[in-house]
Here is the input.
Amino acid sequence: MVTDLDDLATALYVTCDDLLKAHPERRSATPAGGFTARISDAELLTLSAMQVLLGYSSERRWIRFAHRHLRALFPDIPQQPGYNKRLRALAPTMAWITRTLAARTGVGDDSLWVADSTPVECGRSRETALRSELAGWAEYGYCASHSRFFWGLRLHLLTTVHGVPVGWTLTGAKADERHALHDILTGTTGLAELVEANHPTIIADKGYYGREFEHELADAGITVLRPARKGERPRGGEQFFKPLRQVIESVNDTLKGQLDLERHGGRTIAGVCTRIAQRILAMTAAIWHNDTIAAKIRRSLTAYDH
Here is the structure.
């Protein structure tokens, strides 16, 4: 099997189509009046992943490109407003497909996970912060890794040590990382069963602290490993944290550097959530496909960006 975008798109479409036929409740709702969409949900999901992998952050530019070059594969590509509306309706389905693809990889059931958060900038001008529909959810925060303030959100991501996404959530820039991790563990479909079966260990940074927090996770069968905070006694295994945490730093770098995470272009809560889900789906689909064809590097997207 050849590692290229056409091959990935074909495999993703077939898999999505089979999954949605087996689980019709995951399809987008049919509009009132009996209108039948000319392009299927599986085709839309495949198109959305291709858009991200090819680096089109603008939906208008992507639709123009798709109409010119992809009509042989997708004969009924909608115009930009219809494409945008359908993708928003499919946001929950994207998250479910992402989790399903991750579980189908050879490393999707790893019991060693890594947690971290990264800024998702949503605007830079004061006028944007005041007038945006995201105001109230998006807020000013500080990114210690890059020593800068930003206005926007934080993407909290939980992955395996092979970089396969386990779960994710979006919060305001100042949200407590512990609360976000709790939301991921309790709100991600199928994750409770995976925790019960594998009793995972989560490697995190110093922000995931607290005796009560760690006891709650321990009661659920989860062990948290993190560096010691200032004034704490040394914690065992700290020499292994840095190389393992580098995995999720690399995942964040892929999302930002190759998949344009901070150029999402979302202006509403639904728009931002959809575009973030779209990027995580594209990355997971690439990892899943690389794993399926036994590629040497599972997290490489280079073969799919042209």
Notes: The mean pLDDT is 91. The beta strands are 112-123, 139-143, 148-160, 165-172, 201-203, 223-225. The two ends are 18 Å apart (CA to CA).
